[in-house]
Amino acid sequence: MHIDVITALLADLEAGFITWEQALKQVTALPTVWHTAEWKRQRDALIGTACAVCATTDGPFVLQHLTPSPHFKEVCQTVKQELRNQLLPQMEAQVTAADVAAHVGPGDERQACPTCASVSIRERKTMQPRYVCSRGEKGWHAFPYFDVPFTVRYYTKQKTTDHASAMEMAREFLVSVAMVAEVRKYDQAIQHEATLRSLRQTLVYRSLKDTATYCKKCAFKEDLPLIQRKIYAS
Fold first, then answer.
1. How many angstroms separate the first and last alpha carbons of the chain?
2. Which residues of 140-171 are buried (b: 16+ CB within 10 A; e: fewer)?
3. Please, how many CA atoms are within 13 Å of residue 6, restricted to the half-sphere of its CB?
4. Which of 73, 107, 143, 230 is deepest in the core (most CB within 10 A)?
5. Is 99 within a domain?
6. Radius of gyration for the alpha carbons in the chain, expressed in angstroms and rounded
7. Do 36 and 75 have their domain in common?
8. Range of the domain at 159
């Protein structure tokens, strides 16, 4: 089942003798393992006579892999998220209070509802009271109509009149921008680590060691989250 080939690829990749692209290209060129006669023979020998979950003895039964085998893209995302978690303190330290204040800016003066401070108001030409608050009309508060709006400072980028909230949102935005730029520098390292993990997972999968006998109903329930993820991803 080409376990020796994959083991050699893993060793070469860990030692730096080949790149992750070369390792991935070679392993994906191997025949589909579950189509091989050796796989079918070993699988049939391991399938028992009762389901390990519900204990039914009514077949048919399948050999269920107990170790998850995520897609390569999912492994990359996992590695990338781990890197983000490591870099987060550094990125947060890079964004200064001056950077945040400059991004927020002085704000613009806007007319707003005197009850909820929302700038989503409109003027009525022929009806009294003269102004109506859109939020109040939708039931956010009991006084949607008023004659005199009051002036607030509106922070356009953050779409809020709350300065503290604007500063917090601006900081989160600037940290995320810095994070994206920093993570891009590690693209090759991410792919390398993801390939290593994928090769190790492939070895576990092909070894048929971490498996159990399931009835088809229990196997479907176990695989359903993976099926749903694939459907969502497509």
1. 30
2. eeeebbbeebeebebbeebebbeeeebbebbb
3. 23
4. 107
5. no
6. 29
7. yes
8. 106-182
Same domain, 55 and 19: yes
* 101 located within any domain: no
pLDDT in tens, the chain (234 residues): 789 999 999 999 999 999 999 999 999 999 888 888 999 999 999 999 999 999 999 989 999 999 888 889 999 999 999 999 999 999 999 999 999 999 999 999 999 999 998 999 999 999 999 999 999 999 899 899 999 999 999 999 999 999 999 999 999 999 999 999 999 999 999 999 999 999 999 999 999 999 999 999 999 999 888 777 666 555
Task: Bin 30: left if φ > 0, else alpha if -120 < ψ < 50, else beta.
Answer: beta
Rounded Cα distance between 231 and 222, Å, is 16
Whether residue 100 lies inside any domain: the answer is no
How many Cβ atoms are within 10 Å of 39's Cβ, its own excluded? 17
DSSP-assigned letter for residue 174: H
- Which DSSP string corresponds to 93-145? HHS-HHHHHHHH-S-EEEEE-TTT--S-EEE-SSSSSSEEEHHHHTTSSS--E
Tokens representing 90 are 């550094």
Tell me the residue type at 97.
A
For residue 198, the SS3 value is helix
pTM of the model: 0.79
Torsion sign (Cα): 54, 42, 220, 73: positive
